Amino acid sequence: MSLEFDFTVKDPEGMHARPASLLVKKAQEYQSEVKLAVADKTADAKRIFGVMGLGVAQGDVVKVTVDGPDEAEAQKGLHEFLEENL
Question: What is the per-residue pLDDT for 1?
């Protein structure tokens, strides 16, 4: 079973290089698979080129899907990270 949540990006610059790299590092802390989806694009949150390739802008809704052994912990940690950084 996987867990999902939506997050609306508030940062005026969207998901630029710095928060994207911090997000990748945060996602890599967990064993679970972490996917990001924006509109019709999907990326592995543990790969910087995938995350940057999403082109996330302010106001975009990002769907985060977490699937794995520590998914509840990962969902909570990633949600807190996004609230604080984007």
Answer: 84
